[in-house]
Amino acid sequence: MDTTTKTYDVRTHGCQMNVHDSERLAGLLETAGYVDLASVPEGERPDVADVVVFNTCAVRENAANKLYGNLGQLRPAKEKNPDLQIAVGGCLAQKDRSSIVERAPWVDVVFGTHNVGSLPALLDRARHNKAAEVEILESLEVFPSTLPTRRDSAYSAWVSISVGCNNTCTFCIVPSLRGKEKDRRPGEILAEVEALVAQGVVEITLLGQNVNSYGVEFGDRLAFGKLLRACGEVEGLERVRFTSPHPAAFTDDVITAMAQTPNVMPSLHMPLQSGSDRVLRAMRRSYRSAKFLGILDRVREQIPGAAITTDLIVGFPGETEEDFQDTLDVVRASRFSSAFTFQYSIRPGTPAAEMDGQVPKEVVQERFERLIELQEEVSWAGNRELEGREVEVLVAPGEGRKDAETERLSGRARDNRLVHVAVRAGADRPRPGDVVTVAVTYGAPHHLIADSGVQGGVYAVRRTRGGDAWEALQEGSAPGATRKPAVSLGIPTVGAPPRREVAVPACAVD
């Protein structure tokens, strides 16, 4: 590697929105002349990049501890190399601001969720001034999709349809950190989708804090269902996913759009949070358990076999054993294929942090373990029902941690279940981004095993444009180096720029 080349390392914590923001941070740094540390051959790779960026999350209680622990580990490297620059962005940066530099004075840049695009300039300014730069904007000025992006995958991509959230859930700090919902126009979204497909992408995931309230900003309550149908018209786009909807705003037109649009996948992430109506009311979740279960019934009526996942919080302030039993009852009735389960943790700045009835840690832990046990039973039963069925798996590197040991490939079925696929010696081997059709031979609690190819059963590989795109990236790559797609320029806004209100000088007022 050229010794004058500067490297970067973006470390991501948190949700899919953060993952996509990190792709934009990578794109900005690449455009500014930096090189991804992971792309440097192992023998030439420095221990620490010239620029290390932490894209943080503030949802969980241990987020700050994790950040400061990571910053502490970098302190010796900073002392050894004062030219090393450390930047902290994301939700925790938006929340804690200058206190990050006070606690970790070796940090060079702190930037918020609304000014991702400022990172290269802030790094230059900090280097020139030899002082930390802290810039936190209170509202979004430029929609992030207008920024350069360095995608992680050649065949799969995130597409933001909105940022921010208008809900007021008492446990959640996200609205105060990412602001009110702002929606992109459908034409801009579809232009980005078509550009991605032209680059070889076969799967997209539409992103928003609350995707099914998409359209609220421009007055179209049916906009999300229309957007799903429009994605179905994009030639070459094989899989469309989205996350996350809110049960209160989830409408039947979206279910029908999912059912009638072949490339919209039969999977749905629907956050429940609690099965107790009393707790849901305290959470300010504007639905109740009966409405939630009714949505799931209508989804399964129109999309038989849909895999439904959820989020669950245990130990919300005031939660009683009866409330918890209500949650267990709804979990049994919902038959979730899997669930992201969390123990409630106090987030300063949220209404729930000030509520009476904080549940003792030991009680929360015991309930949490019971919930995990039940959900594993439900997941396992659902996966066992799939044994013998054929599934189409989009092969992905890194999905199976034990693939090297088991000599399998891994990927996601159409319903987003994780599938580990055995490949017979000498058989056609799918590339990442290709699709392989196999039969499920065993349903485990957290994944499916598909060994039909080595047992004389179904095994068929379909090479895709996504696999072609992945293969093209590998040409000429050095051993041990990670190759990612080239930086994509941001998608410009369609139409005239929004009108800006100009303040009238006081002296001009009669």
TrEMBL record:
Record field: catalytic activity: N(6)-dimethylallyladenosine(37) in tRNA + (sulfur carrier)-SH + AH2 + 2 S-adenosyl-L-methionine = 2-methylsulfanyl-N(6)-dimethylallyladenosine(37) in tRNA + (sulfur carrier)-H + 5'-deoxyadenosine + L-methionine + A + S-adenosyl-L-homocysteine + 2 H(+)
SMART domains in the cross-refs: Elp3 (SM00729)
Family annotation (PROSITE patterns): MTTASE_N, MTTASE_RADICAL, RADICAL_SAM
Enzyme class: transferase
Cofactor dependence: [4Fe-4S] cluster
InterPro entries: Elp3/MiaA/NifB-like_rSAM (IPR006638), Methylthiotransferase (IPR005839), Methylthiotransferase_CS (IPR020612), Methylthiotransferase_N (IPR013848), Methylthiotransferase_N_sf (IPR038135), MiaB_methiolase (IPR006463), rSAM (IPR007197), rSAM_horseshoe (IPR023404)
Gene Ontology CC terms, in alphabetical order: cytosol
EC number(s) given by UniProt: 2.8.4.3
GO molecular function: 4 iron, 4 sulfur cluster binding; metal ion binding; tRNA-2-methylthio-N(6)-dimethylallyladenosine(37) synthase activity
Annotated localization: Cytoplasm
Residue ranges of every copy of the Radical SAM core domain listed in the record: 151-384
Residues bound to [4Fe-4S] cluster 2: 165, 169, 172
Pfam family of the protein (one): UPF0004
Binding site for [4Fe-4S] cluster 1: 15, 57, 91
Keywords: 4Fe-4S, Cytoplasm, Iron, Iron-sulfur, Metal-binding, S-adenosyl-L-methionine, Transferase, tRNA processing
Family, per entry: Belongs to the methylthiotransferase family. MiaB subfamily.
Function: Catalyzes the methylthiolation of N6-(dimethylallyl)adenosine (i(6)A), leading to the formation of 2-methylthio-N6-(dimethylallyl)adenosine (ms(2)i(6)A) at position 37 in tRNAs that read codons beginning with uridine.
Protein name: tRNA-2-methylthio-N(6)-dimethylallyladenosine synthase
The organism of origin for this protein: Ornithinimicrobium avium
Gene this protein is translated from: miaB
